[in-house]
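Slide 14.
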Amino acid sequence: MKKTRVPVTVSVPSDLAAQFEKLAKVEAKNKSQLFRDMFATYRQRKGEEEFFALQRYGVKQARKKGVLTQGDVETLVFQGR
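Slide 15: predicted structure.
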């Protein structure tokens, strides 16, 4: 499948636009490359936040059920086998 590029227009304050252009020069990237990198970093960070939220939820649920150690987990896993 052919990759296509779609122009995206965003409005930002002029000082932020100037900072963005300066950062692109410092990073030796064009603005599109810099935006793609920034967006990929943002998505990764959001994915990590979601993972850690799920992990905290799992820990809370495990504590409610008295599952506190790796041994407790193994007991539950092998209980029905």
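Speaker note: The chain has one domain: 14-79.
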